Amino acid sequence: MPKLKTNRSLAKRVKITKRGKVLHYRAGKSHILTKKRSKRKRHLRRPGLISQADIRNIKRLLPYGT
Question: Is 22 part of any domain?
């Protein structure tokens, strides 16, 4: 059976933890930061968890857990 291809666009956007949870990086932190309050920018730094409903599809796109 041939090797499976990793979806590179998704691999750049998410990270799979050792326990199998999927973290995503938050949008809105790249530009136009002057109008955003410090608290909002600080919270954007932290990654968020992806819901359980989407994890099955994501793990299919990332077969080797990159």
Answer: yes
Q: Name the strand (E) or helix (H) holding 22.
A: strand 22-24
Q: Please compute Rg for the chain using Cα positions.
A: 15
* pLDDT tens readout for residues 38-62: 999 999 999 999 999 999 999 999 9
Domain CATH for 46: 4.10.410.60
Neighbours of 50 (CB within 10 A): 16
**Cα 11 to Cα 8: distance, rounded to the nearest angstrom:** 5
The domain containing residue 51 runs over which residues? 8-61
CA distance 60 to 63: 6
CA nearest 16: which of 32, 2, 40, 60?
60
